Amino acid sequence: MENNFDTICATLTPQALSAVGIIRISGDKAIEIAKKIFSKDIEIKKINYGFVLDDNNNKLDEVILLPFIAPHSYTGEDVVEIQTHGNPSIINSILELILSKGARIAQRGEFTKRAFLNHRIDLSQAEAVLDVIQAKSTKSAQNALNNLGGYLKEKINLIKNDLVEIYSKVIASIDFPEDVAEVDNKAIVSICSDKIQEINEILKNAKSHDFIRDGLSACLIGVPNVGKSSLFNSLLNYSRAIVTDIAGTTRDTIKESVNLDGYIINFVDTAGIRDKNKADLVEQIGIDNSIEAIKQSDIILFLYENDFSEINQELIDLAKNKQVIYIKTKADITPKNDNIDSIEISSKSGFGIDKLKDKISSIIKNLVIEDTNYTTNKRQQTCLLRAKESLENVILTSKETDLADLYAMDLKGAILSLDEITGEVLTDSILDNIFSNFCIGK
Ligand code: GDP
To answer: Which residue(s) pair with 26 in the sheet?
Structure first.
């Protein structure tokens, strides 16, 4: 193994009472430390049953001990996992014992960072581990699992390999002009254009990736008392927002997420919008929040009770590039008597709520491109954009000049940006930043 790290340990399970707790030790000394604390000889490639014994041979717990020998482990190093009873005080005393034998506590994401540094996985796969843990919906988890399997890595490498090939030819022609012929500018332009198109294909799905990962946001807009908080509660299936008939009860925006057909919808209940001049200061803050909510939402639910004109035209204009659903509320007491393409609901009786959910689902299906089997995060999207920009510069320069030196720099820049996605050229500070988002024990 290239890297020679110290030995680290941490609990993989939450610090709470549970049936089982798991401690992982990873590094050169993992097996040696395990031998010092285990009641029996440890058999490699076997499930070992026994006790963890302290320095005075007192039993700390009855455990299952699993040894993994490098490189066949999560980190690519020697690893020992100990399954204890899920009692935090037992787990902590075993951890202390392990520390006293020469290990140290792992930092956030350090096990996964080691898997990356030991070349067991690339960076897109390491980030996928975090995505799998944090996935809020089935679809998001599925895509993250595909990334973990190397789906994004392969896509990026396909783009990169062609660029590396042409870059090597360009550099060879610069360094050995007598022996190596110049690369035809047309070939450069053609390859770069193809690669830009492939990058665009991935970026085209970026918004869908964001939707799948973080969910879509939908806000409820309407005059006070129209029934926003009641609908919000119906959509969530529990009473999250306060419902009263005193106008302006909901002054702050409230956010809650629901899982609809495998997708996350982040619903926002806003303060009621009314004439700015008539509203008091607190209400005005709420109004400004509502305007902000429209700007930040993907789907806008406009509610009216009696008359469509209750909905402020300015706000309809503000939402014109968004997905909008008009909702006629309180169907149980005031029947709909207009030709507006709106969904009639009653939060009180539940009438129309399923129809509304179906409508939201169909909007999501239009917004989200389903045929993506992988996902990209913001960092990866930024790298792709940078690679694309460099390739555009290569095309521009190579059309203007035959001097390969001038576009070789940008060609290299594109390759380096793609390398950043898989993690081949990352600095320590970028790595620390990525892995600090993990929990301890991953
Ligand atoms: P908001 O100010 O727009 O959030 O409105 P609320 O959800 O707080 O509702 C205002 C009042 O209308 C409350 O007294 C609710 O009980 C009532 N309300 C809300 N939805 C319905 C409904 O579907 N039917 C009936 N009959 N009353 C409703």
So the answer is: 8, 79
What pLDDT does 1 receive?
A: 43
Residue 84 phi/psi, 5-degree rounding, is -110, 180
Is there an atom of ligand 1 within 6 Å of 112 CB?
no
User: Ligand 1, from 223, 240, 243, 250: best to mutate by most atoms within 8 Å of Cβ?
Assistant: 243
Distances (CA, A) of 164 to 43, 112, 192, 330: 46, 28, 11, 63
The DSSP bridge partners found for residue 343 are: 327
Q: What's this model's pTM, rounded to 2 decimal places?
A: 0.64
Question: What is residue 245's DSSP assignment?
Answer: S
Judge contact between 65 and 81, C-beta under 8 A.
yes
Alpha-helical segments (H) within 105-227: 110-117, 123-134, 138-148, 151-175, 185-204, 206-214
Considering the chain, what is the average pLDDT of its residues?
Answer: 85
Distance 174 CA to ligand 1 centre (A): 75
| Residue among 225, 305, 351 whose CB has most ligand 1 atoms within 8 A, to mutate | 225
Nearest to 311 by CA among 338, 280, 284, 272: 272
For residue 70, how far is its CA from the centre of ligand 1 (angstroms)?
Answer: 63
| Residues 71, 103: Cα–Cα separation, whole Å | 19
Structure tokens at 288: 């400004």
Contact (Cβ atoms closer than 8 angstroms) between residue 150 and residue 159: no
Two structure tokens written together for 242: 């306060």
129 or 346: which carries more pLDDT confidence?
Answer: 346
Say yes or no: CB of residue 328 within 6 Å of ligand 1: no
**Interhelix angle for 404-422 vs 123-134, to 10°?**
40
Ligand 1 near 86 CB (within 6 A): no
Instruction: Determine phi and psi for 57, rounding to 5 degrees.
Output: 65, 20
Q: Indicate the SS3 state at residue 422.
A: helix
C-alpha distance from residue 349 to each of 250, 333, 354, 360 (Å): 22, 10, 12, 20
Spatial CA neighbour of 377 closest among 149, 134, 198: 134
355 pLDDT tier (thresholds 50, 70, 90)? very high
- pLDDT of residue 323 exceeding 50, the answer is yes
Collapsing DSSP to helix, strand or coil, 299 comes out as strand
Q: Per-residue pLDDT tens for 362-411?
A: 998 888 766 567 778 888 999 999 999 999 999 999 888 777 888 899 99
Q: What does the alpha-carbon distance between residue 357 and residue 351 come to, in Å, rounded to a whole number?
A: 12
Residues paired with 265 in a beta bridge: 216, 258
